[in-house]
Amino acid sequence: MSTSSLSALAEEQLGLARTAGSGRSARTVHGGAGTSLRQTLVALVAGQELAEHASPGDATLQVLRGRVRLVAQDRSWPGEAGDLLVIPDARHALHADEDSVVLLTVARR
Question: What is the pTM of this model?
Answer without folding.
Answer: 0.91
